[in-house]
Design goal:
- This protein has 397 residues and is α/β, with parallel strands linked by helices.
- The protein has 14 helices and 15 strands.
- Helix 6 crosses helix 7 and helix 10 runs parallel beside helix 12.
């Protein structure tokens, strides 16, 4: 009797890019040493994947939703409510949830979207101070998250405002990108809240807080969201493994078990061994599917660091892809897919909606004859990108 098929998606967040002159016209993926992703591409399918439908901003929310097989045109209603699902924050029918970044703004310029990658401990002190000074029972509440990423819930405020992610405007004047919209009352309230937060954050520094945060930045807002589970759609059980609340929230909404890994940072040197061990445990425990996400290529791209991005890609290939290939060699019923959720371009330090390269190998997957995994190789094999639901069904059917 044949064993039940198992499925793994390995996500190198933002690792796709455009050709760079300093690399002789190659992309970071093409220049990096990626023998394990190359092996998957050579042993199976390679192609182009459009994770960002027309009309959507190229964010990790849209990209990861697509990779999980959900069409954002049907299911997406905001990034922050997805993260709220991960954090177990109840969202009432009148609540709007905002992503609340701790950022560094100097002379009206977005200097750092992550406040110098503020520690979770330092950030918790800041969020606690904001809640004590600005929180209103039942109306406004700050929720501490991880590092610079936090949430704010408000009542009936700001759902339709136009808000820009802070990582899209690094090094730019913030005035053109402040929350805006047709409802002047909502806009004024949110801007006032951001302004009132500044002296509170500065006071935490005066009391000995060792951090680079100067402001909060509110964006990604929306109401509560629900998704049909992967078990309901495909009869699949499984786990999500990520250091990022957004990805864990999507997994939870998809009905996956959220596996929390000590030392998983969302940056270089994350606990790859712990992530791999959790994935193997999920499969050995009888689960069908694992979504293993690594954030570091995206973070280093937002920093504009070519050397760090290549390091992040090579770490992902060696410690995540390579180790799971070893497991596949002992588990022939395992299919493995590798893909970014979107491009994060070093040239702009932000996301791009262009298609990304993917590869899939395993039992029943046809072989395209690719020599390696990179953007140029995917374009040489196929000319027309597929979308997220087709990619997911290619993996699981």
């Amino acid at each position: 009797m044949s064993q039940k098929q198992k499925y793994l998606i390995l996500v190198g967040d933002g690792m796709a890019d455009f050709p760079i002159s300093a690399l002789g016209g190659k992309t970071p993926v093409e220049s990096a040493s990626t023998p394990n992703m190359d092996k998957i591409a050579a042993a199976g399918r390679i192609g182009l994947l459009s994770t960002i439908p027309d009309g959507f901003l190229p964010g990790s929310d849209i990209g990861n939703m697509s990779l999980l097989g959900y069409d954002p045109r049907r299911y997406f209603c905001g990034r922050a409510p997805i993260e709220a699902a991960s954090m177990g924050i109840p969202i009432g029918p009148d609540d709007v949830v905002f992503r609340c970044n701790l950022v560094t703004i100097e002379n009206g310029v977005m200097k750092d979207y992550s406040a110098g990658h503020i520690s979770t401990e330092a950030a918790s002190t800041v969020i606690s101070a904001l809640q004590k000074s600005l929180g209103i029972d039942g109306e406004l509440k700050f929720h501490p998250g991880v590092g610079y990423r936090h949430l704010l819930t408000v009542k009936n405020i700001g759902a339709k405002l136009k808000c820009v992610p802070p990582h899209d405007i690094t090094g730019q004047k913030i005035d053109p990108y402040l929350p805006n919209g047709d409802d002047a009352g909502d806009k004024d309230y949110i801007l006032s809240l951001m302004n009132r937060a500044k002296p509170i954050i500065n006071e935490t520094k005066a009391k000995g807080g060792n951090h680079a945060a100067t402001d909060i930045w509110l964006w990604g807002q929306g109401p509560a969201v629900t998704l049909p589970t992967l078990n309901e759609r495909y009869g699949i059980t499984g786990s999500v493994i990520s250091a990022v609340d957004l990805v864990r929230g999507l997994g939870k909404l998809a009905g996956l078990k959220v596996r929390t890994i000590d030392g998983a940072t969302g940056y270089l040197g994350t606990n790859y061994a712990g992530k791999v061990a959790a994935a193997i445990d999920a499969f050995n425990s009888g689960e069908d599917f694992v979504y293993l996400h690594v954030e570091a290529p995206d973070e280093t791209s937002h920093e504009g660091s070519l050397d760090k991005k290549i390091q992040a890609i090579e770490e992902f290939d060696k410690y995540a892809v390579g180790e799971m290939l070893k497991y596949q060699s002992q588990t022939p019923n395992l299919r493995i897919a590798v893909s970014p959720d979107h491009i994060t371009a070093l040239s702009t330090k932000t996301h791009d909606a262009s298609p990304v390269p993917f590869c899939i190998c395993g039992d029943g997957i046809k072989v395209d004859g690719a020599k390696r995994y990179c953007e140029a190789e995917a374009k040489s094999i196929v000319s027309t990108p597929i979308e997220g639901p087709e990619f997911f069904e290619m993996l699981v059917k």
